Amino acid sequence: MRRILPLLILAALTLVAAQALAQESITKLAPEAFGKFQRPPALFAHDKHNEKAKLDECVVCHHGGADGKQDKSASTEGTPCADCHKVKPAGKATGLQRAYHKQCIDCHRAKGKGPLACGQCHKR
Amino acid sequence: MNAAYEFVTGPLAWIAWGIFLLGSAWRLISMYQLAKKKDASSWAFLDLGFSLRSIVNWLIPFNALGWRKNPLLTVTTFAFHVCLVAVPVFLMAHVALWTEFFGLSYATLPDNVADIMTLVVLAACLVFAGRRLTQKDVAYITTGKDWLALAIVALPFLTGFLAYHQVFDYQIMLIAHIVAGEIMLAAIPFTRLSHMVFAAFTRAYMGSEFGGVRHARDW
Ligand code: HEM
């Protein structure tokens, strides 16, 4: 037992570290808020994407706001979109699926680069 | 490839919808003028009550005598038409595009349900094709126009299904699907598919003639 214990601790630490690393580098988006998914998770390699697309300003995507008013100057990186955008929104508010689609697709259309069609992001 | 996708979902979609809507209006108006000129008496006995009576009775499966004669064809026809209309109108991907382009959103079918309904349409197309090939009386009156209508309907479903499952090259298949869908829309007023526009009037005519003139049922 005494010889196995350090090994077990090492293994546990590696697992924790691997998990932390995995969280740092997002490659796909599948927020739990949706519950059941109809489509495969959208491809989005966070850091690589922003490097390739030359997006230095975090606030381009991570905006703030409250009470139905968007605040395009308040940066909120680290706050999940789902905290402010509900899957089933009340009234005119932007729903979660719409929030992702509008943000991602509008920019790709404007820049003439990046995926526009369902299966390019929701790859099987 | 983005440019091709933007072209088929942009200008080409406007053209297809324009041909479908204006073409349908034109076909209805010219049929109305022709009927008034050549068959004025039919207009005199056209009756809303008898018309609706005929339409409703033919909409109920196995209600009309014609429906009871051939059960396989009746089931196939009803399943086919329900799926044919419901899938393109309520498909989540189609509604997502209405939202993307016009901010419109409404109820959608779950993807797996729409997927099965798509297979129902394709299976029905096979039944219709088999019948035209094997049943002598039907084969006798079948023309190229019937095959064209069947192909125009089957293609958007076949390509849509393959694109959804991402079989073969996704982007090429999706563009082929959208073009096939637009061909179907534009072809509705000018092919056998025009019965979509005329069906209600055909039944109204028959219903009124049988109800008001012959005092009989037409179902
Ligand atoms: C303006 C024309 C059209 C456009 C822009 C369009 C667009 C699309 C898109 C984006 C998809 C999803 C592909 C994916 O999930 O990756 C799709 C699927 C599909 N569409 Fe269309 N479409 C059009 C017309 C039509 C028409 C006229 C029909 C049938 C009458 C049709 C039937 C279908 C079917 C059956 C599917 C696949 C459903 C499944 O298997 O789950 N579409 N379409």
Mean pLDDT of chain A: 87
C-alpha end-to-end distance of chain A: 45 Å
Number of helices of chain B: 12
Give a quick account of the main beta sheet of chain B: strands, pairing sense, barrel closure: none
Overall mean pLDDT of chain B stands at: 94
| Rg of chain B (C-alpha, Å) | 20 Å
Question: Structural class of the helices, strands and pairings of chain A?
Answer: mainly alpha
- CATH C-level class of chain B is Mainly Alpha
CATH arch. level architecture of chain A: Alpha-Beta Complex
Question: What is the class of chain A in the CATH system?
Answer: Alpha Beta
CATH superfamily of chain A: Cytochrome C3
Largest sheet descriptor of chain A: 2 strands, antiparallel
Strands ordered across the widest β-sheet of chain A = 1-2
DSSP strand (E) fraction of chain B?
under 5%
Shape of chain B: globular
Concise synopsis of the structure shown:
The complex is a heterodimer of chains A (124) and B (219). Chain A has 124 residues and is mainly alpha-helical. In chain A, 39% of the residues lie in helices and 8% in strands.
